[in-house]
Design a protein that fits this description.
- The protein is an alpha/beta fold.
- It folds into three domains: about 1-85, Orthogonal Bundle (Arc Repressor Mutant, subunit A); about 100-165 and about 275-300, Periplasmic binding protein-like II (D-Maltodextrin-Binding Protein, domain 2), CATH 3.40.190.10; about 170-270, 3-Layer(aba) Sandwich (D-Maltodextrin-Binding Protein, domain 2).
- The protein is built from ten helices and 15 strands.
- It has helices at about 10-20, 25-30, 35-50, 65-85, 105-120, 140-145, 190-195, 210-215, 250-255, 285-300; strands spanning about 1-5, 5, 55, 60, 100-105, 125-130, 150-155, 165-170, 170-175, 195-200, 205, 220-225, 245, 260-265, 270-275.
- The strands form four sheets. Strands 9, 10, 11, 12, 13 and 14 form a six-stranded mixed beta sheet that branches. A five-stranded mixed beta sheet has the order 6-5-7-15-8. Strands 1-2 form a two-stranded antiparallel ribbon.
- Strand 3 and strand 4 (about 60) form a beta hairpin.
- The chain starts with a strand and ends with a helix.
Length: about 300
Amino acid sequence: MHFRRLDLNLLVALDALLTDRSITQAGRRLHLTQSAMSGALARLREFFGDEILVQVGRRMVPTPLATSLERPVHELLLQIRTTLESRPGFDPAKADRHFRLMMSDFVSTVLLTEVIRRAEKLAPNVTFEVISNNMDDPVETLERADVDLLIMPVDYVSKNHPYEVLFEDRYVCIVSADHPEVGDALTLEQYLALGHVGVHFGTQRAPSLDQWFVSRSGLDRRVDVTAMNFASIPQFVVGTKRIATVFGRLARSFARQLPLRILPAPLDIPPIVEAVQWHKAFEADPGTLWMRNLLKQAAFDVQEG
């Protein structure tokens, strides 16, 4: 479709280019070759009489005109998307919708696995794409409506979009089932003396909540291994004298598959509260509402204990 000599498909290309500041990355986003993306940029430059993106060192930087276009173009495309996807109802048995969900591997393990099992029976043609929120700014992804739902700790949700609490979980400790020095309980002295397996997140290597709490409490524990995600933690505990502090639901999931023992944490670490959030433009979308309800019901049924 053309409007005032502009191929409206070029607005999609413009949105991707201004998001990624890279011809290569924008092409990947739109599943286009670098050559095709370069051609789109050339046509945008011709239409607007502006460079749109200019090379500064190793980065591409938007021109003032491009910066002024970024928000209105994105909002226009979002409005078109919500209009086209709007349906009077959502019948999961007949729907062929594709949901993009962003969350940690913790939530994926303890909640989404059950959701996917239920969805297979209720909505056999619905498909899912699970994206890690182990990035520096997952909220920005939500702001751009690049995902349908974002699940993350309630303390980090955006204030600009609606959300609902899904579940709460408390920290416990896991040790190898044959640990020679630990009985049915851990003292604080043992906890601090044993080697720990921890986890850091994102390119900034942000520490987990339990590590932050221990440091804030003025205590010091020895971290022998820093894992790349929650799922890899138990592999560094089994068959060793190490210990890990993880969420209760995750610990029970691990213990069903590996020789691990679960013990109460000797510190009163605040619980984590996970929430699901969606872009306000999709507040009334029946499909999003169905997905939210499926998540909430699964979270309730698989609740702690």
